[in-house]
């Protein structure tokens, strides 16, 4: 799988990836559909909620690792469902034990069950503890430019601001905040949460985001595999448009064919 242009990989924690689309593994009808959608998306990094999906902790049940083997995909264990720093740190340590010392994790600490908005105070505390313990932390956060910079300074390998609340499908709600975060970042900025359809993904990439993580937009679609394919193309197109550089917006028309020097 390689959707990036030559010399334009997504680099996270020193490893280069050919796809800028990261996909989740929850909400699919079964592991077969999970695999089909992941392949259609071209994703190389896949998230897994340690507290919800079997990664071997239940030996007698089907395991996600059978559908998405670690030799084919980079697994990104996440702390979905955690509401304080201590709980999130314990979950990451469990993932490290289950996955033979795996260091790359997605940190999310939620504030409440209604909005699933991040608890930024507990997120900061957990990020500091995990980085100090040797984890490579990709962190879900609000679209606050000051907070995003602080998480980068702590040592997170990627900062993942929301575009809108988790699972809402509302799309990019604050372009200014994302643009400000991107402009000031020295680590990858990956939109996490809120994307609903392919145009949302393209807009995020056109703003200059380094990648997008999505689950519900794919798994909740009427045809998840087809939506995964659409998202793959949208992310690639958005990245190419960003690199190409769009024309400036103007209030008045500007003819594609110049009128100067017309014959007769």
What structural keywords apply?
264 residues, three-stranded parallel β-sheet, 10 strands, 15% strand, 36% helix
Question: What does the model show?
Answer:
It is a single chain. The chain has nine helices and ten strands. The protein has helices at 31-41, 64-67, 85-98, 120-132, 145-154, 175-183, 198-207, 216-219, 224-244, and strands at 10-12, 15-17, 21-23, 45-49, 74-78, 104-107, 136-141, 158-161, 190-192, 211-214. Helix 4 runs parallel beside helix 5 and helix 5 (145-154) runs parallel beside helix 6 (175-183). The longest helix has 21 residues, at 224-244. The protein starts with 9 loop residues before the first strand and ends in a 20-residue tail after the last helix.
Alpha-beta content class: alpha/beta
Radius of gyration: 19 Å
Largest sheet: 3 strands, parallel
Shape: globular
Name the helix and strand elements from N-terminus to C-terminus, one letter apiece: EEEHEHEHEHEHEHEHEHH
Mean pLDDT: 91
> N- to C-terminal separation?
55 Å
Q: Briefly, what is this?
A:
The protein has 264 residues and is of the alpha/beta class. The protein has nine helices and ten strands.
Element layout with pairings:
Layout: E1 10-12, E2 15-17, E3 21-23, H1 31-41, E4 45-49, H2 64-67, E5 74-78, H3 85-98, E6 104-107, H4 120-132, E7 136-141, H5 145-154, E8 158-161, H6 175-183, E9 190-192, H7 198-207, E10 211-214, H8 216-219, H9 224-244
Parallel strand pairs: 3-10, 4-5, 6-7, 7-8, 9-10
Antiparallel strand pairs: 1-2
Helix pairs in contact: 1-9, 3-4, 4-5, 5-6, 7-9
């Amino acid at each position: 799988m390689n959707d990036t242009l030559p010399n334009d990989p997504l680099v996270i924690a020193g490893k280069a990836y050919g796809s800028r689309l990261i996909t989740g593994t929850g909400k699919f009808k079964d592991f077969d559909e999970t695999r089909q959608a992941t392949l259609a998306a071209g994703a190389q990094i896949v998230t897994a909620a340690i507290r919800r999906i079997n990664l071997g902790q239940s030996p007698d049940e089907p395991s996600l690792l059978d559908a998405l083997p670690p030799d084919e995909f980079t697994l990104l264990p996440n702390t979905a469902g955690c509401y304080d720093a201590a709980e999130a740190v314990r979950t990451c340590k469990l993932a490290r034990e289950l996955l033979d010392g795996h260091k790359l994790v997605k940190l999310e600490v939620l504030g409440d069950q209604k909005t699933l908005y991040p608890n930024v105070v507990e997120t900061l505390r957990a990020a500091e503890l995990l980085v100090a313990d040797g984890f490579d932390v990709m962190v879900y956060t609000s679209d606050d430019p000051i907070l995003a910079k602080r998480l980068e300074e702590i040592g997170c390998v990627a900062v993942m601001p929301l575009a809108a609340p988790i699972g809402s499908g509302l799309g990019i709600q604050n372009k200014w905040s994302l643009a400000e975060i991107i402009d000031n970042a020295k680590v990858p900025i990956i939109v996490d949460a809120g994307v609903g359809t392919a145009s949302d993904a393209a807009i995020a990439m056109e703003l200059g985001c380094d990648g997008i993580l999505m689950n519900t937009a794919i798994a909740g679609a009427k045809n998840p595999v087809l939506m995964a394919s659409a998202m793959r193309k949208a992310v690639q197109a958005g990245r190419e448009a960003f690199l190409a550089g769009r024309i400036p917006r103007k209030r008045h028309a500007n003819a594609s064919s110049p009128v100067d020097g017309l014959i007769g």
